[in-house]
Specification:
single chain, 748 residues, alpha/beta, six-stranded mixed beta sheet, 25 strands, 28% helix, globular
Length: 748
Amino acid sequence: MLQDEEVAILSAGGTARAGRIQALLDEMTVEEKVGQLTLVNGTGGWVDDDLAWAVRSGSAGAVLNEVSVDAVNELQHLAVEESRLGIPLLIGRDVIHGFQTIFPIPLGQAATWDPERVREGARTSALEAARAGVNWTFAPMADIGRDPRWGRVAECLGEDPYLSSVLTVAMVRGFQGDDLGDAGSIAACAKHFAGYGASESGRDYNTTNIPERELRDVHLPPFLAAVRAGVATLMTSFSDLDGIPASAHRPLLTDILRGEWGFDGFVVSDWESIPQLMDHGLTADRYESAREAANAGVDMDMAGYTYRDHLPALMESGEVARRKVDAMVAAVLDVKLALGLFDEPYTDPHRFPGFGDPAHLEAAREAARESMVLLENRDGCLPLDARSLERVAVIGPLADEGAEQLGTWIFDGDPGLSVTPLQALRERLGDEVDLRYVRALQTTRDRSRDGFAEAVEAARGADVALLFLGEDAILSGEAHCRTDITLPGSQSALLQAVHGTGTPTVVVLMTGRPLALEQDVPHMDALLCAWHPGSMAGPAVVDLLLGDHGPSGRLPVTFPRVTGQVPIYYGHKSTGRPPTPEAWVHIDAIPPGVPQLSVGNRSFHLDTHYTPLYAFGFGLSYGAFEYHDITVVHHGAGDEPTLGDRLEVSARVTNVGPRSATEVVQLYLRDPVASATRPVRELKGFKRLELEPGQSERVHFTLESDDLAFHGRDMRHTVEAGLFRFWIGGSSRAELSAEVWVHDAPSD
């Protein structure tokens, strides 16, 4: 366990700004120090007397949810010109997937498998937020999401620690730029530390029981990647972790984060999560809550006021060391200095692109286009040939909903910038095509069937029926969890009715989570998962439907067949009795009176297949790809691979389809015999590759020894000699494989 003195050195020492920080600390009163650790809510476009007093007196060092540049500049004036020490404010805001120009939800951005596209989205969002005076965002969310019932799966970057780590780093770099002091850079905040995505029953704020090995191998890697990328801040989770709420978890916040990883930014609580320690049953009152959080390693109290009210007394009693508080304040001041706020506290909005900037809208369109995943395309239903279309039926509650397509967490999103699919289709097809629009359902939750007859009439005789189905934005996000993740309302019945006309039926699915669609897929000729794609959803959808661009998105999460399969994810363990095609038995195939022990005796459910509906990494394109000739080459001193050698795994990929297309080539690994059981597959690399028809290219992946490591029985991060199996392909169900035996390094 680290001592408080060591924490102080880690937080405040070793930077060029340390001298200035120490000088400020020497001048500050206890109340002013505590003020720097207090994050208060704004008053919405103006500064009331209470907020003005808090800033002027030094009782608040940061403000959130204020996006009026005039109000922000007034607050900064109060802090810099009218407070005793002139310390500027952090201005925080949830800028999750866009500010006014909205990009796809983070889960959709993860479906791009394109770190540069994700970085560009975060950079665009940072520029727009900075224009409003925001200098700190509570993103990216680095939680691993393996339960689509959880509403916040929309905000995560998928189920896999490697993919999430790569894209978390991309977001951090997009928000923070090359230097936090550069114009348009804002401080990022990786959240929720840690394990929040494992909430029981997919229910927000719920308990998380995560074994330490799983915590370290699955849930912590994206946060470690963020720290290594220089993320300025972290936010604690609402949930408890093995009985200790995250906002009081010293082993997590001090021993691992600061001790093992050397994090020197600051940690902020989630909204009122410090006083909520009482609700967890960890503390008796707010005084104890402040003590537990501060000593655990939470530097700033978001909206809880426990530090403001109780830290001075805790310091006086010695229950929280003064040196500890100095370290907390130093970490906050260091971020403010890194942002350049002491030199330039005010915002000139004219320095940044205007809201609705054409370049920002184009970036959102490109991100939306790359995020969409083609899941079904029977008989080449897509792309549609615009030249041969005479009549098109556009049906569904999400075809013309500019606000709904933005998704969750869009406080500042401007629906006026939205271009809906219906608008884009009308613009693209013009008067040459008879386009008939029928809403059919008022919302995705509508259980009425009053609009079905009109929808069926529109579909009958049309060249194609385009159905825009899914979830209203309100059905995903924080505290928006579901027990049944099938299509809500009467949408399944609407789909069946339209498909029953015999007209080719294309579903564009707008959703904040994977849905259980096994009952619906037979009634679709094509399925394009668009997630909630943001401001430019319409043009991006039309680009893909009409073949102006090919679909290249791949699933960052597994789609279950039915809700009861959840949680289902590709990186599961084998178990002692893994399911096999030969052993699997469906409930309807079991004759009455069969003895209990004669129905498979393997790990599966009786009432659905054990495989997912759509696997992690899956996605179709308008091309077709074949993989062959996989090789594993080692780079080391000996003739045989040994621990410490670099491995190069490669395969040849060929586009055997009729069109140019983009493939996401994926590398998977299995360590089949280890001192602790390992997943059946782990993603270890991916590359986006565009090939012309008939074109081939050999794709290479390089693995360092550490890429083979895991936390062993002694909980040390280690690599063990033995057999390793590799797959290269287009999803987590890739078939092309090779094996290599890695030997112990020779002794000296």
